[in-house]
Structure formats: structure tokens, C-alpha cells
Write a structure and sequence with these properties.
Blueprint: E1 2-7, H1 9-22, H2 24-50, H3 54-90, E2 97-103, E3 107-111, E4 116-120, E5 124-129, E6 133-138, E7 143-147, H4 153-166, E8 171-173
Parallel strand pairs: 5-8
Antiparallel strand pairs: 1-2, 2-3, 3-4, 5-6, 6-7
Helix pairs in contact: 1-3, 2-3
Length: 180
Amino acid sequence: MKLKFTLVKSDFLQFQLFQSSCSENVKKRRDKNRKWVPILYLALALILFVQSHIFAALFLILAATGWWFIYPRYESKRYVNWYSKHLDEHYAGRFNQEVTIEITEDQIEMTDSVGKSTVHLKEVEKILEISTHYFIRIKSGVHIIIPKNQIDSQELNSFINYMTEERAVPLFQDTDWIWK
């Protein structure tokens, strides 16, 4: 079975954002970043309210509310920009390169402009599916990115069925995932 596709920057970006959204450390950091400023503003508002500075206290309450609702969008864009710059710096040579994946009886052979790599099928840990991509996780932590929009759906389904049914690789579907 053979799959051919071209990886573009947006494929790498989707992968980075998906991995980031699954990371417990990133989730905790994002949650902490969202909460600490409003808590500080509300504490200061309480102090000002007790000191009869009503207008300043109301302003801080309004600022805390604004932060709670606006900051997640800002932070989301910040992550996209950071990962985009990171990809430009570290992976620019891998954009727009044709990739060929061939599955034999016991291995996956991946060929791109850099060279050829072989992974034994027993080393495939799991397959992650989002609405636009499949990410094949190897036990060493490396991932293979497969964009759905560039491969015939019948070929892709055949590949995924082979991996999940015949090779017993677990498939984790998160087709509703979007970066927030």
C-alpha cells in the first residue's frame, strides 16, 4: 500500500497545535494565565471598594471580566504565531516536499527529500485522528503527519483499517477538535 502527499507549513502547524492542546503542562499554564490576572484585579477591586473608591473598583471588575473573556482569544493567536515562527526557523526545509509512505507486511517506509526512514509496525504506538489529519505516533515519540485532503479517502481508509484492524494499533478519534 502506498500513499503520496505533500506536507505544507499548515500541516506541521496543525500538528503542533494539536499536540499542545493535548499537553497537560500547556493546559495548566493556559488555565493559570487566564485566572491569575482577574483574581488579582478582583482582589484589588475589593480593597478599593472597602476604601470607598467605588469607581476604581468597578473599573477593575470590568477589566477582570474583559480579561476572562478576551484573553483566551489573544493567547490562542499568540500560540499560533509562536509555533509558526518556530516552524519557520526549524522546519522550513521540510515544507512543500513530497512524501511517500509505503506499508509492507512488517514496516512503514517513508521517503521524502531528506531521505528514507523505516519504522517497524510493532513500533507504532497509536494513530490520532482529527478532522483534517492523521498523526501516527511511534513509540520513540516521533509522529508521522498524514493530511486527509491530499489522499484519496478510499486509500486512506484502507490504510487506517489495515493498521487498526490487522495490526491492532489503537485509533484515537478527535474529529471535533479545533484550536482554541
